[in-house]
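Q: Here's a chain of 168 amino acids. Please give me its 3D structure as tokens.
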Amino acid sequence: MKDLMPNTKVKVYGPEYVTREVKVAGLVSQPLVLTTENLREMESAEIRDLTMICGTGRKKEVIESCRGVLLSTILDRAGIILREHHSPNWIYVTLSSSDGHWALFSWHEIFNSPVGEQAVVLFEKNNRPLDENEGEISFISAGDGRPGPRRLRYLQHIGVYELARPEQ
């Protein structure tokens, strides 16, 4: 993975992709639609001095600070439905953006590892609201060794799903 070639997909930024709300749906007891204002009213988390490293290992930028709400806090509010004791082993969470990018997490990454302690739905970067190059709502997994691949601008949807179990 060290010298992985970068994806050739064209980067798309602009006002046409800006999202003003994020929907939380799927295997949850309380589906949510959260606006930027709703997120600002929730308990916030701050990430400081984050070096953004892309999938190739190249340093892209250093973010002085970013603020948002932990993904785990949002999912707790939505209430993930755990059908049985071992359900967390089968649950996964997807995040998707209006520009076609997405990220994937297991339940254990979010609730049972240090990665989840820095998986944040953002509304602010460097003490300012996000601009049209980020969208009003974005996402970062600051605990990843290379945070770039799971960084999402223009976050619009968080989905909770359960894998089909293999036959025994």
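Q: Can you summarize the key feature?
A: The longest strand covers residues 59-70.
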